[in-house]
Amino acid sequence: MKASSVLQLFLEVAAKASEIATVIRKEKALLDLLVEEKPEIEKNNQYFQDFKTLADVLIQETVRHFISQKIPNLGESIYGEESNTFTNIKGDTITIEIFHKQEDTKDLLSILHFILTFPD
Predict the structure, then answer these.
(1) Which residues contact 47 (CB under 8 A, 6 or more apart)?
(2) At residue 63, does pLDDT exceed 80?
(3) Residue 81: which of 118, 43, 114 has the closest Cα?
(4) pLDDT given at position 89
(5) Do 55 and 20 contact (CB within 8 A), yes or no?
(6) What is the β-pairing status of strands 93-95 and 85-87?
(7) Phi–psi pair at 51, nearest 5 degrees
(8) Of 10, 112, 107, which is closest to residue 53 (Cα–Cα)?
(9) CB count in 10 Å sphere of residue 93
(10) Cα 60 to Cα 109: distance, rounded to the nearest angstrom
(11) DSSP class of residue 95?
(12) 80-120 pLDDT, tens per residue?
């Protein structure tokens, strides 16, 4: 793949990430939807408390997904700062993924919203 194509891919992925951050930032309900304090093993020791958010994970997984589609070898070696798994106070766990079919990703996020909006 030519360097100009790689640069174009990175710009497209950055634009997608920006769009996700903008949408989540505009909607307080989305902004507050999922925030988790990182466990000690994942925590940055520079901070007393270290959090990950749904926005962090969605952006990270979007970058990994779209780069993997165009450059599989590179995509497989992208490791983000955040784990893509969240656990609520009841111990329920959900893993955030970006699927090849947009509808599948939308379904996962709809389930996530339902679980968080209507807890048992």
Answers:
(1) none
(2) yes
(3) 43
(4) 63
(5) yes
(6) antiparallel
(7) -115, 155
(8) 112
(9) 9
(10) 15
(11) E
(12) 888 888 776 667 777 888 888 888 888 877 777 665 555 55
**Residue with structure tokens 């959900």?**
94
Q: Which residue has the tokens 């988790």?
A: 36
Return all residues near 44 (Cβ < 8 A) that are at least 6 apart.
38, 50
Cα–Cα distance, 37 to 1 (Å, whole number): 39
Q: What does the block give as tokens for 9?
A: 């891919």
Phi, psi for 84 (deg, rounded to 5): -95, 15
- Tokens standing for 68? 């993997």
What are the residue ranges of helices labelled H in the chain?
A: 3-26, 28-31, 54-70, 72-75, 102-117
Tokens of 28: 């307080």
Structure tokens at 31: 């902004």
**Beta strand 51-53 pairing with 35-37:** antiparallel
* Average pLDDT of the residues in 14-37: 79
Residue located via tokens 């634009």: 15
User: What is the spatial distance between Cα 72 and Cα 46, in angstroms, rounded to a whole number?
Assistant: 34
Whether 107 and 114 have beta carbons less than 8 Å apart is answered as no
Confidence bin at 8 (pLDDT 50/70/90): very high
